[in-house]
Specification:
Length: 477
């Protein structure tokens, strides 16, 4: 019989050595139980894109937390100062859908203390809280209800942000009522009274407006009221994830990734949870973590960086948004992106155009792969790539592991085979995969790609359930 060409025999030897190394990696993984997500955490992480809508008294004054201060309190204390001229929540929905976010958060109460719903909460003297949309001179529109109704009609889950630690109206900052310096229009309350008002407002918000997807705790929860807040969560919103709450043994915790730039450092691990008030990218599953916490990457989009709408402040260029997408969604995090409502009560038209441009890029670039593999429980996937013009410029892949089984992979390589050659060449390497890892080619690809191979070379409790998809830069608008 004839011997195969030398190049083929060398290639076969290489393949056998690779399979041996993979098998050895499987034997060498850490023995233990991989933490897995709750149903709420799994739902959250699979959303990939979440919106944070900033609209409150700060919109009409300045970006800040609190935006109200001694220089503007003469007017910012009046509910009438929150005065959108053409409030249109449907306009917001259009931009949410243009980007493709899967749920949205609204700042129902921010640092000034102003509420976007008409409250029945009372002050210590028995009078109404007063500082809300239904207060004296206010617009008289329950914006929280309008938001919930519009989101439901659009089929989008919704959530609320309520700052428990700050209220300029109640003279409280960083969770403490100031002992002096009360301005006219501020309410004189004790620390206990401030906390009672906060708990009552949260109960109203969580019990009135339906099931919430996510509850934002900016700055965490004071130890003094944590037991009461946890009881309300369990009673009214047991299926919501909690962002930044810092609750001990919180089963539905989402952790802050540690930066608001939208460009966290890779790798990002869903294994390992932050200490209260902290932010991090987690810890590798081979360090024996016992908790699962998806990482939320909240990010400002205006440039310079502000959360609330500021006149003549554009959204970052598309190229930067693309980098942020790759560094968050493409790195096992959830991108929580800002939508700043302007003083008319709408998305600024220049912002809306950039949101649409960003969404078009996401869909064109990652909507339809050139090729994709079926899900399989294995340590190696070989993907046949059609020999088309699009395949010739495959320059990125998306790797996923089934995070319902926990995050297991700690090391991988991707190789490619060019048309007319049996050799495999390096395409990309990495560590964390999780829900999704978008890996761009680390070097110029030589030739027409006909095959891609994903090799899982390190991890915990392998093999994992994985899939590989190839994408072409020709598809990106």
């Amino acid at each position: 019989c004839e011997l195969a060409p030398l190049s083929l025999r060398v290639s076969e030897l290489f393949n056998r050595m690779l399979l041996l190394s993979i098998a050895w990696a499987v034997l060498a993984v850490v023995d233990g139980s991989v933490p897995i997500p709750t149903a709420a955490q799994l739902r959250y992480q699979r959303q990939e894109l979440v919106g944070i809508t900033h609209f409150n008294m700060a919109t009409f004054y300045r970006n800040g937390d609190p935006a109200c201060d001694s220089s503007n309190w003469g007017t910012s204390q009046k509910p009438a100062s929150f005065a959108p001229t053409n409030l249109n929540v449907s306009n917001w929905i259009a931009s949410y859908e243009a980007v493709g976010v899967k749920s949205v958060i609204l700042t129902a109460k921010h640092g000034c203390g102003f509420l976007l719903w008409p409250t029945n909460v009372t002050l210590p003297d028995g009078s109404n809280y007063g500082y809300h949309v239904g207060g004296s001179g206010g617009i008289g529109v329950d914006i929280v209800a309008e938001f919930a109704k519009s989101m439901t009609a659009a089929g989008l889950p919704y959530s609320f942000y309520y700052s428990l630690k700050d209220s300029f109206y109640l003279n409280a900052i960083s969770d403490n009522v100031k002992p002096s310096g009360l301005l006219p229009g501020q309410i004189n309350v004790t620390q206990d009274q401030f906390e009672d008002i906060s708990v009552a407002a949260v109960e109203e918000l969580w019990s009135r407006y339906g099931a919430l997807n996510e509850i934002w705790f900016d700055g965490g929860i004071s130890a003094r009221i944590s037991a009461r807040i946890i009881a309300l969560l369990n009673k009214y919103q047991p299926n919501a994830v909690t962002y930044g709450a810092g609750i001990l043994n919180d089963r539905n915790e989402v952790d802050w990734i540690g930066t608001e730039t939208g460009e966290p450092k890779y790798p990002v691990w869903s294994t390992g949870c932050n200490k209260p008030g902290g932010g991090s990218t987690g810890v590798s599953p081979d360090s024996n973590p016992t908790e699962y916490c998806p990482k939320g990457a909240d990010c400002t989009l205006q440039s310079p960086d502000v959360w609330f709408w500021v006149p003549n402040t554009p959204i970052k260029p598309l190229s930067q948004l693309q980098t942020m997408y790759h560094d968050t969604v493409g790195a096992n995090a959830v991108m929580e992106m800002d939508f700043a409502i302007d003083r008319t009560g709408n998305i600024d038209p220049t912002h809306a155009a950039r949101y649409a441009e960003f969404g078009d890029w996401i869909r064109s670039c990652y909507g339809t792969p050139v090729a994709s593999s079926p899900w399989a429980t294995t340590n190696s996937v070989v993907l046949d790539v059609p020999t088309t013009e699009a395949a010739a410029v495959v320059d990125r892949v998306a790797i996923q592991e089934d995070i319902a089984q926990g995050q297991r992979i700690t090391q991988f390589t991707v190789e490619y085979q060019a048309q007319g050659t049996p050799e495999w060449s390096l395409f990309a390497t990495g560590s964390a995969v999780g829900h999704k890892r978008i890996a761009l080619a680390t070097a110029s690809v030589n030739g027409l790609i006909t095959k891609l191979r994903l090799n899982v070379t390190g991890g915990v409790e392998l093999p994992a359930n994985i899939t590989l998809a190839a994408f072409s830069k020709n598809g990106c608008v």
